[in-house]
Amino acid sequence: MAASLAVSVLMLIGKFTAYLLTGSAAIFSDAAESLVHILATAFVAFSLWYALQPPDPDHPYGHGKIAYFSAGFEGAMILLAAAGILYTAVQDLLHGPELRRLGLGVLLTALFSLINLLLGLYLIRVGRRHHSLVLEANGRHVLTDMWTSLGVVVGVALVAWTGVVWLDPLIAIVVALNILRTAFQLLRQAVAGLMERVDEEDTRRLIEVLDEAVQQGIISDYHQLRHRRTGDQLWVEYHLMLPGERSLEEAHAQAHRVEEAIQQRFPDRRVYVTAHLEPEHHEVAHPAGHREPEDPLKAQARR
């Protein structure tokens, strides 16, 4: 992450230099996006450090959810950059841009595009390997910066070739609209994580494991399945139903077999399971009635 931040600072200096040399609103849009990326990368670096802190009495589940705050912060910063770009572009459309030395601006921006491509692909690959939303979001931001730079290269080259100066602010507006899309994607992802939206693939795998346990006679049934994911951690809870005549030791052994099967189905995650054991005749165990919370995943558990 330190390398990403250092590269971003150098890119920012280069892009603002290109803007000062050319007066291009399109190149300014590229530089503004890079400034936002530096602020976001600095917050990402803090988030990575904070997420690795061990659980404490105030945060017994750890600190991994800061990844969603980080993604939301980055999305908000991109929104601000888009607003600034749109303002500058509209001003140039109304009053006319003053452009100069566009050839040099094209060469510098093309070089920055290549650097961003390599850096963005690297961050996304590392983020997916380690299930780090923070790194993956940062990598996506870098690739957005790359596409922004590439669009600016084509646009400014077209302005230099045709002499149609109003194309420059028009390109800046297109760039702003493009990065707005990325901003909303990051914000949606952040909100989904903070609201603990479940991953459908995780649900499918868990139901498969539990259904197999029923079919193999390890357990009689199950319900109240819930799960949530934070980074590379998967927290799972459920109620397992077993024959009432089994001893506590036998029931625990069967529950442990189910837990091991889940661990094997998620080899790249740190899985934490909490199981509540019940006799298979649930209504007999609670003759006076037993109020349980809603079971939202029950409909998907069709065996």
From TrEMBL:
GO terms for cellular component: plasma membrane. Residues 200-280 form the Cation efflux protein cytoplasmic domain. One of its GO terms (molecular function) is ferrous iron transmembrane transporter activity. Keywords: Membrane, Transmembrane, Transmembrane helix, Transport. InterPro entries: Cation_efflux, Cation_efflux_CTD, Cation_efflux_CTD_sf, Cation_efflux_TM, Cation_efflux_TMD_sf, CDF_Transporter. It is found in: Membrane. The keyword Transport applies. It is a multi-pass membrane protein. PANTHER family: MITOCHONDRIAL METAL TRANSPORTER 1-RELATED. Belongs to the cation diffusion facilitator (CDF) transporter (TC 2.A.4) family. One of its GO terms (biological process) is intracellular zinc ion homeostasis. It comes from the Bacteria. Residues 281-297 have a biased composition (Basic and acidic residues). Residues 3-195 form the Cation efflux protein transmembrane domain. This is Cation diffusion facilitator family transporter. The chain crosses the membrane at residues 34-52, 66-90, 102-124. Residues 281-303 are annotated as: Disordered. Pfam families: Cation_efflux (PF01545), ZT_dimer (PF16916). The lineage of its organism: Bacteria, Pseudomonadati, Rhodothermota, Rhodothermia, Rhodothermales. Its main location: membrane.
